[in-house]
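Instructor's aside before we start: the two examples that follow are unrelated to each other. I chose them only because their records fit on one page, so don't look for a connection. First example below.
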Amino acid sequence: MEYLKVFERFDPPQGFIKTTVNPNMDGSTKAALNRKGNVLFNAGDAEGARRIFLTTGYSDGLSRVGDYYKSQGQVLDALKMYWIAPDRTKADPIIQQLSEIIRHFINEGETDG
């Protein structure tokens, strides 16, 4: 898989790679993994839960991981989880805040010139 070589320079990986290839798993396997993710999340292992929920595409779990990140002040990581979930009701306010910050810096640069 040659496309994986592109990401070798990222050690450890700090982001996520979203692909269009869905894992081939049956419903019972997906449910079992989601239960394991919920157990990890409830035990305080948000990262372990995140990996499982990304694999299974469990939107509620991803949204809860996003809530955790947001509570820890990791707003961009929260936005990633909300976007993948997709949970626009939680993603949109963050996007709006980021837009306002960018708008402020653009306007500030215009007045300095």
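Example two begins here.
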Amino acid sequence: MLYRRFPELDEGDLAKRRASLVSTLALAEIARGIGLGPYIRLGRGEELTGGSDKASILADTLEAIIGAAFLSAGPEVARDFVLRLVETLMDDPDRFGIQMDPKTALQELAVAEGLGEVSYRIAAAGPDHARVFTAEAIVGGAVLGDGVGTSKKAAESAAALEAVAALRAPTAADEDAGARRA
């Protein structure tokens, strides 16, 4: 479907788009869009911590439903089902940008701008069943973003998103130069 819709894109861009469509975040978004959360049977602990809206649980459940469609109705029906589900995401022009993979976007930006190594500093707080992680995105030794999440990965992604926004934000010098040119 991606190749037919975007024949002008090279293999690398198509691979990134495919990865973003089948990512945990995308599958969770689809699951939320079809109202899947309330139908997931969870243990008491997961229910108390909002498990029916956790991206990993939603994505895993949607994958299980796709697998069930494949086993019960065959590959063609399952393929058509998946294509209908991801079609809604294909229409979003920002779908394939930084929102889907902020850590990769930060890494690519740091390399392109020669900013130095990207690393993350993680801290955790709270009981094991309700752990909250905080992360700092560090680029070239400077903390450029902070993030919070229910997993290390989510916290790092939030920090990376903030760091990319900080790097892309126009500086006061940029704004002054733009005003002088106008």
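Confidence is low (pLDDT under 50) at residues 177-182.
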